């Protein structure tokens, strides 16, 4: 596995890749099986898979959250070697932003970037879009692989690709979960034993919501979505350690609120703080 730390070195490597399809997995490091599963999905006959590891400062609206983000570069590289990743792009902030981190030519994603995560993390998606576009223009992949744990992010990256007219296919991959259902996340390592045990309630509430809505869909019962959301939030409220930021059921394509159950594809999303660690999760409801 090759490691590249500069754009120039990567571009030299890019010029040597002949007859292979280039697949890309962007990460902020602190890798877990969810990340590795993206690499494994990307590994196909005659493909070249590159993973980036870059903790992007412009997408953190909370300086403390940025400071606490786990850095495990040596371990990450060892894990990527195990899954036979072809290359790692490991740039510095200066390399990524030679002209400074100020936003330039910002895309207006409208409501999609203003709701949910956008409401609680102002500026997050502007910073995320900035670094993803920069990485895509550096790496020049044919396909981009992203997990659906960050559902809203994946939707916005899809919009980014459309608005910038990039010839890149976005491959959205299902969320990987621990045996008890907790969504795999780099932040999970910051949970103490008690908080880790409680955190699984987030996925339980999401799965409860999905079961209820799917049953009502089968019965063609156009019940109010609010009733089910309220019941799920009450389940979480039984744990005083869970500080809910949002628990919502939205249209899976537009992220707009849906008042009644219908044939539309939905997604249930949650964000909460547990033991000082902010976690997000979601489940798609077909």
Description:
With 286 residues, the chain is an alpha/beta fold. It folds into 2 domains: 172 residues, Rossmann fold, CATH 3.40.50; 100 residues, Pantoate--beta-alanine Ligase, Chain: A,domain 2. The protein is built from 11 helices and 9 strands. A 6-stranded parallel β-sheet has the order 1-4-3-2-5-6, sandwiched between helices. It has a 3-stranded antiparallel β-sheet with strand order 7-8-9, covered by helices on one side. The model has no long low-confidence stretch (mean pLDDT 96).
Short account of what is shown:
It contains 11 helices and 9 strands. It is α/β, with parallel strands linked by helices and 286 residues long.
Topology at a glance:
Layout: E1 2-4, H1 7-14, E2 21-27, H2 33-42, E3 47-53, H3 63-68, H4 73-82, E4 87-89, H5 93-96, H6 111-114, H7 117-120, H8 124-139, E5 143-147, H9 151-163, E6 169-173, H10 193-218, H11 225-237, E7 242-251, E8 266-274, E9 277-285
Parallel strand pairs: 1-4, 2-3, 2-5, 3-4, 5-6
Antiparallel strand pairs: 7-8, 8-9
Helix pairs in contact: 8-9, 10-11
